[in-house]
């Protein structure tokens, strides 16, 4: 277990290192902090002096070291637009994005497994064919179009669902602003979650179906039939457990994709999350905010990948978490 | 139990000795037989060819040139499609967009741009991926493990995420004006570079499988150079996985391009792809001007759908060993 | 009544290009404790026959004719529920590759206990005790610890022992073993085969041994069936078939055995290869490869001729028998 964590930690450090270099280069190349601080009226000599004082003329490595040191202390600079620490601005929007991802994951997990398994077991039934038909249409519609479509039908035409924003939220004691505990907040969560799930769900249904069909052809499943086991046990224990192994791995990678897609859904629904904020930051060239977003997203990647690996190790006996050989 | 190339002695009749022409070989092939039976494949290919013709001959088909400001009259803006009895103008079959451009012409040009970007990006992906995959698979050892680690890292960052960050940073540092001129090139580069591991892994797997076969040994014994062996002997045998991946990848690239354009990071409104056209219409959808969003949306979804359907069909027919996970 | 009687069994595969007969006109009987060998090259249909006895052929294959009578009950027409009480319980199966047969994500114990619980109303603890006992029978050292291990922690030979233990778990009447040793190291092959035969003998279990190796068949079985392209071409007591093979194909298989080779000379392989099921030649399926091919072989499917205690499907043998009879008459 310790070996596993050390290995993961090393990987995490590498990933965060890459992200920090990228972030720093962005900060270094994008926008001039002086312009933000003093405006145009200051003379060139004064500017040079200020640059020296701020350490902007130091060698690259020194500047990068300072950046990392500050970053480790949670200081990623001050947002030009909000005039607040960039990290605080981002973290305040984190709950909104995470709740959106949570809603979408819930939809994906509860639907993809039963639908995928059913269509693998009964590939010829009309229901499976319908499911597969919908999934291929599903993966062909970009997330933002699904989002627009949902708004058009359910908000504008039918008026059943709110079309933008988070609705009523509640502040939890540890500073987490949640929309999960009010009816209004939940209603606002439905359409964005559905549209975020819309591209992943068909992908997972197809993946689970394909894997399951392959597993059902395997020798050990045939052997299980020859042992006279009940079909329920064969499908849901013997086959499903093996099906889920590759699905978990792919799922881990897809979480990253999902974070990227939140930018799209949040833009369409004006969902006040990190993605929406990030896009605004780009339009305003608010460099510290862009950097803070990249680092927070990088951290989310690392954490979720670790969790996924951990789950994979627990499900798959051939992976040895304890590190003994 | 299934087809194999085993020949029974009686097939060596004199007639069969004549080498069949390419056309005869194609006519007898599995792929053609399957195509003749599969309605969906026929329909998809027909629709796709329609799109290709639309894209290739857009300047000839389109009644207006959407890039020519002299042909645009702002007074014609937001006209509904011609079948609308109250406001429709027979001059503009599908209506006009917010700037008064004929929507049909703009869609034709947009399809051209979307397809071009998709195909070019995939050509780039394929080139990088195939070269890296061939090298990794053929050389093996340390070269292989380093290249595949790179592929893992590249894959762990989602394409959309990378593309958004890279394009955002470029847009911020170049300024919007210059960026708009370079948008097409940038999109091709970003989408092209981000997805090479797909190809590299599959090609590598095929190379490893082919390498074991005798004809590669034979070629080596005959003293053929390594590069010649790779390109003349191994590559042709990996064509079917390449074909399957490419079909789906072009569809994905078109979706990515549309999504990026929707976020304002892709093609500018003055030279719209299908994605940016949808994006430009999105502002007006709430006021009932649905056609600027919906019509290009349907065109986009149909294009991606037929490509995905063809990809599925090819995968079923050619059944190549694709890299999973 | 024989323990198992197969009558006119026919199995077809519904492929896109039309139905293909994988097994045609199979007839044989098996008595309690008897050992039967099914021999043929790969593609001859021996494995399909093995699976069809348990009505376990994967789609698109299915039994299209004939009967499989196990103690008088027709397995070909049984419901899924009834079949479950037979499979693994009265008739069990041992597969070719122990690396693939055991589920990689379940422990040995789980895979044994589930089988016991599926067929008997006993507690989990009792089931585990029985499982450990069976593992001891197949000579697995320290079964108490092995039972909680996963398949990947065991060697190939060990795994095949576990598979055999699962096969014996319910004290079945018949074990169908599909090439049980081909995937193993040569050194352990004999050991595993010996163990299996010994256990069958001790428990009076009938064995259907599917193999391409006539050598093993001659050592282990009392009866043998030689198959070619989905059809039985020769069947009878093993000793007769080995000592006096009648069908040119069986003779070819015998001559191809390494034991039969003269040192320094090439093995006598049968030329050509087994046709695929879609392209079975008309007449005798073996005619394109046969050294004694006659005109009639190309047009007419040979019927069965009795030769000693054997049945042979060959025009040439039939002709020879006719000649014998006529010469006696003269």
Automatic annotation (TrEMBL), chain A:
Keywords: Cell membrane, Membrane, Transmembrane, Transmembrane helix, Transport. It is found in: Cell membrane. Its main location: membrane. The chain crosses the membrane at residues 9-27, 100-121, 133-154, 186-208, 243-264, 290-315. InterPro entries: BPD_transp_1_N (IPR045621), MetI-like (IPR000515), MetI-like_sf (IPR035906). Residues 94-312 form the ABC transmembrane type-1 domain. It is a multi-pass membrane protein. Belongs to the binding-protein-dependent transport system permease family. This is ABC transporter permease.
From TrEMBL, chain C:
One of its GO terms (molecular function) is ATP binding. It is a peripheral membrane protein. It is found in: Cell inner membrane. Keywords: ATP-binding, Cell membrane, Membrane, Nucleotide-binding, Transport. Residues 6-254 form the ABC transporter domain. It catalyses: a dipeptide(out) + ATP + H2O = a dipeptide(in) + ADP + phosphate + H(+). It holds the Pfam family oligo_HPY. Transmembrane segments: none annotated. The keyword Translocase does not apply. Its main location: membrane. InterPro entries: AAA+_ATPase, ABC_Ni/Peptide_Import, ABC_transporter-like_ATP-bd, ABC_transporter-like_CS, Oligopep_ABC_C, P-loop_NTPase. SMART domains: AAA (SM00382). Its EC number is 7.4.2.9. Belongs to the ABC transporter superfamily. This is ABC-type dipeptide transporter.
């Amino acid at each position: 277990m310790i070996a596993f964590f050390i290995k993961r930690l090393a990987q995490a450090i590498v990933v965060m290192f890459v992200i920090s270099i990228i972030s720093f280069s962005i900060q270094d190349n994008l926008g001039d902090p002086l312009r933000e601080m003093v405006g145009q009226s200051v003379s060139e000599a004064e500017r040079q002096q200020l640059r020296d004082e701020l350490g902007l003329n130091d060698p690259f490595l020194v500047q990068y070291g300072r950046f990392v040191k500050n970053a480790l202390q949670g200081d990623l600079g001050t947002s030009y637009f909000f005039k607040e620490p960039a990290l605080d601005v981002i973290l305040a929007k984190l709950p909104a994005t995470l709740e959106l991802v949570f809603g979408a994951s819930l939809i994906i997990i509860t639907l993809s497994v039963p639908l995928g398994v059913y269509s693998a077991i009964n590939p010829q039934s009309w229901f499976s064919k319908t499911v597969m038909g919908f999934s291929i249409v599903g993966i062909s519609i970009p997330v933002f179009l699904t989002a627009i479509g949902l708004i058009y039908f359910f908000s504008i035409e039918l008026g059943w669902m709110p079309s933008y924003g988070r609705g009523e939220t509640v502040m939890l004691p540890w500073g987490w602003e949640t929309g999960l505990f009010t009816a209004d907040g939940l209603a606002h969560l439905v359409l964005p979650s559905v549209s975020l799930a819309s591209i992943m769900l068909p992908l997972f249904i197809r993946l689970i179906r394909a894997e399951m069909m392959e597993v059902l052809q395997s020798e050990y499943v045939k052997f299980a039939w020859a042992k006279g086991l009940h079909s329920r046990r064969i499908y849901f224990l013997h086959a499903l457990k093996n099906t889920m192994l590759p699905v978990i791995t792919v799922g881990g990678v897809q979480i990253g994709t999902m974070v990227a897609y939140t930018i799209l859904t949040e833009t369409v629904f004006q969902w006040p999350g990190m993605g929406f904020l990030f896009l605004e930051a780009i339009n305003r060239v608010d460099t510290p905010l862009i950097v803070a977003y990249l680092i927070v997203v990088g951290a989310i990647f690392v954490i979720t990948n670790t969790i996924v690996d951990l789950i994979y190790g627990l499900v798959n006996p051939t992976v040895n978490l304890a590190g003994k050989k | 139990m299934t087809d194999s190339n085993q020949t029974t002695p009686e097939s060596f009749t004199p007639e069969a000795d004549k080498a069949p022409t390419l056309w005869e070989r194609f006519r007898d092939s599995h792929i053609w037989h399957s195509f003749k039976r599969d309605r969906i494949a026929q329909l998809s290919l027909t629709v796709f060819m329609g799109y290709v013709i639309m894209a290739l001959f857009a300047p000839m088909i389109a009644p207006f040139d959407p890039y020519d400001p002299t042909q645009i009259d702002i007074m014609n803006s937001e006209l509904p499609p011609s079948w609308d009895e109250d406001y429709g103008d027979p001059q503009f079959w599908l209506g006009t967009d917010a700037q008064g451009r004929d929507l049909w012409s703009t869609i034709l040009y947009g399809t051209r741009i979307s397809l071009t970007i998709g195909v070019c990006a995939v050509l780039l992906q394929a080139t990088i991926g195939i070269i890296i995959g061939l090298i990794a698979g053929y050389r093996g050892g340390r070269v292989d493990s380093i290249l595949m680690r790179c592929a893992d890292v590249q894959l762990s960052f989602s394409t959309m995420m990378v593309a958004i960050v890279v394009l955002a940073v470029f847009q911020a540092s170049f300024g919007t004006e210059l960026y708009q001129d370079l948008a097409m090139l940038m999109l091709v580069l970003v989408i092209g570079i981000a997805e090479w591991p797909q190809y590299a892994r599959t090609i590598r797997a095929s190379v490893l499988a082919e390498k074991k076969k005798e004809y590669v040994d034979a070629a080596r014994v005959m003293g053929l150079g390594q590069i010649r062996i790779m390109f003349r002997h191994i590559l042709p045998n990996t064509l079917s996985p390449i074909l399957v991946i490419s079909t789906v990848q072009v569809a994905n690239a078109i979706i990515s391009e549309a999504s990026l354009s929707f976020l304002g990071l892709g093609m500018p409104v003055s030279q719209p792809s299908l994605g940016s056209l949808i994006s430009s219409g999105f502002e007006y959808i709430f006021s009932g001007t649905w056609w600027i969003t919906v019509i290009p949306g349907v065109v986009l979804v149909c294009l991606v759908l037929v490509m995905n359907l063809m990809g599925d069909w090819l995968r079923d027919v050619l059944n190549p060993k694709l890299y999973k996970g | 009544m024989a323990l198992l009687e197969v009558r006119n069994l026919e199995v077809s595969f519904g492929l896109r290009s039309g139905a293909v007969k994988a097994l045609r006109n199979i007839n044989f009987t098996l008595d309690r404790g008897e050992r039967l060998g099914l021999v043929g090259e790969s593609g001859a249909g021996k494995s399909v026959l093995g699976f069809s006895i348990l009505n376990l052929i994967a789609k698109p294959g299915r039994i299209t004719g004939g009967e499989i009578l196990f103690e008088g009950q027709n397995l070909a027409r049984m419901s899924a529920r009834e079949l479950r009480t037979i499979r693994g319980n009265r008739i069990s199966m041992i597969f070719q590759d122990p690396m693939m047969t055991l589920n990689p994500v379940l422990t040995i114990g789980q895979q044994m206990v589930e089988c016991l619980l599926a067929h008997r109303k006993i507690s989990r603890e009792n089931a585990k005790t029985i499982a450990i006992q069976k593992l001891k029978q197949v000579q697995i050292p320290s079964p108490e610890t092995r039972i909680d291990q996963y398949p990947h922690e065991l060697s190939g030979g060990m795994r095949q022992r576990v598979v055999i233990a699962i096969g014996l778990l319910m004290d079945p009447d018949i074990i169908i073993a599909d090439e049980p040793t081909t995937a193993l190291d040569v050194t352990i092959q004999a050991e595993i085969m010996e163990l299996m035969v010994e256990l069958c003998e001790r428990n009076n279990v009938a064995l259907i041994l599917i193999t391409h190796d006539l050598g093993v068949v001659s050592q282990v079985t009392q009866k043998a069936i030689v198959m070619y392209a989905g059809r039985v071409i020769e069947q009878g007591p093993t000793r007769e078939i080995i000592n006096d093979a009648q069908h040119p194909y069986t003779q070819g298989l015998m001559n191809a055995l390494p034991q039969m080779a003269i040192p320094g000379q090439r093995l006598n392989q049968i030329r050509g290869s087994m046709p695929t099921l879609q392209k079975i030649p008309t007449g005798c399926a073996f005619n394109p490869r046969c050294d004694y091919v006659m005109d009639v072989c190309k047009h007419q499917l040979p019927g069965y001729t009795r030769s000693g205690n054997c049945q042979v499907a060959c025009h040439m043998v039939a002709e020879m028998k006719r000649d014998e009879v006529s010469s006696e008459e003269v």
